[in-house]
Specification:
Farnesyl Diphosphate Synthase; homodimer; mainly alpha; 305 residues; Probable farnesyl diphosphate synthase (chains A, B)
Chain lengths: 305, 305
């Protein structure tokens, strides 16, 4: 490992710990202003869905993108990252439901509707989505109201019908009618790309960066999102190749097209290298400070788990 | 009908038309900034869930509470009302799901999961909840960022685990373990009370009213919320009495306690009159201007549909 990648791993771990602690605090039994009671079973289900020890890649991107502009109010970046992670976790809880992808396990644990019940899982997802906007707007997030408003709007757009929720709808439709290349690109840009792009742009918003820097981080986020999805599809195929003894075809066979399935593994590996290089080019204006985000793009492109 | 109640009915109708038009515009196929595409089927399901011609009581309360403080930016109050209605409609779409209350019909139309499918209904609810915060934060809502931030926070608290979503969790639990009087009061204050209270307080926030006025509208909202729920429970019983030929017992029998079931119909009718009078007293400092909101409390307490 290079010193840059060791630093990256350390920062990934320490940021994940900050976000985990922040989420655990937000999901405690204590009432916030304006709340009447926090029903125990729902709270437990929400905690099950949110405190699952993930890599917390999206909050990491918020925090490190904000850090690009100097020290800044780090705890606010952690809070915005935690808000974004609530949206990500809500989407996992709902996507796992029987009516959606019907998954029983996530990260080796029973999914929320298995550990509790379907109704509670639906409400747990709703609660996490609502909480995301609570966290951004709360007084404890020390940002100007202008910045909070921008964050609320950008997060709602990234998560809504033109972003993640719409992407999940396209994904459900793709099981019946396999989309072509353009359709896959749109689906992935919405389903996984929109939140990752928001993560990077949110860092710039938190730091009140100028429009040019914000635009660069937005494009960096799009590039990382593309790499994230492509690596995911490749991983799906590779893991499959090892266990099933055949290299291609599973995704095609079940009618869920991926770019890897359409264009092949070699193309995907070349494209991942290109995307990591593009991310580096986009960050060049920020100089050495951007080292950690350059390394992040490499990590996302090369990840094998 | 008194002239006051005729005016009330006219305003209820004209406000509902404004909100309906606002929602129809927001739920059109046109992309907003930051959106990639709006999947057709999901958009149709969202429209089915939101454009259902309801009374739009919650937006009405926002608009009329704001109007108490002068003309103000009426279109912003309509937008905030539309945002709140999105939250209300999302809760109906999710509550109707098979895993929740399993209802096939709402306002004489098939519920969203019946007209489309469960997965799409889950996503349609998620989309409406997300859209609520989009609407408040969007530039088209001409309010200061401070006011927008206050609205986002208050709405998230009213809708979250300490408010509506938590109330629905308590309601699910109540089917297994019938709560006592205190439990019913908490459940109802959260499940239906929190959004109605928010509606009235939001009017004051939109108008940037002082803390005292805001407190009065908050208490007015609590009073209207209590009356709304009590009238609902009474209506449930009365409708039942007509069709079933017995006056009491259905709610108790199915284990879902209501205050009417616990304390009787006479008590409920007396209490509704008290609540309407309390609402009037709370609004006395606002003078004649508050006539429409006084009438609203009477309407809510006396409604028989």
């Amino acid at each position: 490992m290079t010193s840059q990648s060791i630093l990256f791993q350390q920062r990934l771990k320490s940021n994940a710990e900050s976000v985990e602690a922040m989420l655990a605090g937000l999901l405690s039994a204590g009432l916030q202003a304006g709340e009447i009671a926090r029903p125990e079973r729902l709270l437990a289900a929400v905690r099950h869905g949110a405190l699952n020890g993930g890599k917390r890649l999206r909050p990491f991107l918020v925090i490190e993108a904000a850090a690009l502009f100097g020290e800044g109010p780090a705890s606010s970046a952690v809070r915005v990252g935690a808000a974004l992670e609530c949206v990500h976790c809500y989407s996992l809880v709902h996507d796992d439901l029987p009516a959606m992808d019907d998954d029983d396990l996530r990260r080796g644990q029973p999914t929320v509707h298995v550990a509790y019940d379907e109704a509670t899982a639906i409400l747990a997802g709703d609660t996490l989505l609502t909480l995301a906007f609570d966290i951004i707007a709360a007084p404890e997030t020390v940002l100007t109201d202008r910045i909070k408003t921008e964050l609320v709007l950008a997060l709602a757009r990234a998560a809504g019908i033109g972003g993640m929720a719409g992407g999940q709808a396209l994904d459900l439709a793709a099981e019946k009618n396999a989309p072509g290349e353009a359709g896959i690109v749109t689906l992935q840009a919405m389903k996984t790309g929109a939140l990752i792009r928001f993560a990077c742009e949110a860092g710039a918003i938190v730091a009140d960066a100028d429009a040019e820097a914000r635009g660069l981080l937005r494009r960096y986020g799009e590039t990382v999102g593309l790499a994230f999805q492509l690596a995911d599809d490749l991983l799906d195929l590779t893991a499959d190749a090892q266990t099933m003894g055949k290299a291609t075809g599973k995704d095609m066979a079940r009618g869920k097209g991926t770019l890897v399935a359409l264009k092949g593994q070699d193309w995907a590996e070349r494209r991942l290298n290109e995307l990591a290089a593009e991310a580096e080019t986009l960050l060049a204006p920020f100089g050495e400070r951007a080292g950690i985000l350059v390394e992040t793009a490499r990590f996302v492109a090369n990840r094998r788990s």
